[in-house]
Design brief:
Blueprint (H helix, E strand, L loop, with lengths): L1 E5 L6 H8 L5 E5 L9 H14 L2 E5 L12 H20 L4 E4 L11 H25 L2 E5 L9 H5 L1 H10 L4 E6 H5 L5 H8 L3 E6 L19 H10 L5 E4 L4 H17 L2
Parallel strand pairs: 1-2, 1-8, 2-3, 3-4, 4-5, 5-6, 6-7, 7-8
Helix pairs in contact: 3-4, 8-9
Length: 266
């Protein structure tokens, strides 16, 4: 498992990468405006930084104001286009994969008809995303959500992710496990890892108190890290662990805490 970091969208992306590259070899680019938005200058800048520091890139597709399950056709189309464009962007930058959030509930939960429509829209969006991923030959990973009101329950229990991946049956559409998100639910993370199994192709790490999504430093919350690493080891996971704490200093502390645990299973 290789320890990497998510780019902090509060910082200038060049400043972040130059600083992070002194410690980390893998960077997840958060494709949000104005941080890593698509532009010819950004492609040139990020490609040059990748070459100069011999970095591995992954990309987190846009999620601010994006809803792949929106019941509004125009808003869903705009959201879908943001994701499809990010896949092209990721290919141009030589990213290993793209992480995508599932849809969210955009209406009162008591309206069952509209919740059904939203879930159908989400499924159709991922069909389109899967087609794009196959055309670009780049892996897309759906991320499990935290337990919070806008999220479909099935996206924080993981059931929706398994259903979508298994239904579409593409090697270019798999799962990104977010350990911090899982820790806010009533599904123990080792159990979630067992549920996803070999579908897990990417992992996000951060800590919290078991209730709120805090993006705390790894090792400073209630996540049972030894059990998590043991469960990942059991399914043969050997990919990236992307630390999503929002400061480089916190990410370094997370790495210092977690790497001895990882090494103990080698």
């Amino acid at each position: 498992m290789l320890y990497g970091v998510s780019s902090a969208i509060e910082l200038d992306v060049k400043e972040f990468i130059v600083s992070a590259a002194a410690t980390f070899n893998a960077i997840e680019l958060v494709s949000e405006f104005p941080h890593v938005h698509y532009s010819t200058p950004n492609v040139s800048l990020l490609s040059e930084l990748k070459r100069s520091y011999d970095l591995t890139y992954t990309m987190h597709a846009p999620f601010c104001s994006v809803n792949l399950a929106s019941i509004n056709p125009k808003l869903r189309k705009a959201s879908l286009n943001e994701i499809l464009n990010s896949i092209t962007y990721a290919r141009e930058l030589g990213c290993e994969l793209v992480v995508v959030h599932p849809g969210i509930v955009s209406h009162p939960r008591s309206l069952q008809k509209f919740e059904r429509i939203s879930k159908e829209n989400q499924r159709d969006s991922f069909l389109r995303i899967c087609e794009k991923a196959e055309a670009e030959k780049i892996l897309v990973c759906i991320e499990n959500m935290p337990r919070f009101p806008p999220a479909f329950k099935e996206t924080w229990t993981g059931d929706a992710l398994v259903e979508i991946v298994d239904e579409l049956r593409s090697r270019f559409l798999q799962v990104a496990l977010d350990v911090g998100h899982c820790n806010t639910t009533d599904v123990p993370t080792p159990q979630m890892i067992h549920k996803f199994g070999a579908r897990i192709k990417h992992v996000h790490i951060h800590d919290n108190d078991g209730f709120r999504e805090m993006h705390a430093v790894v090792g400073q919350g209630s996540v049972p890290w030894r059990a998590v690493i043991e469960a990942l080891n059991k399914i043969g996971y050997d990919g990236l662990l992307i630390d999503e704490h929002r400061t480089i200093e916190g990410q370094k502390r997370g790495k210092e805490y977690l790497e001895p645990i990882i090494q103990s299973f080698c």
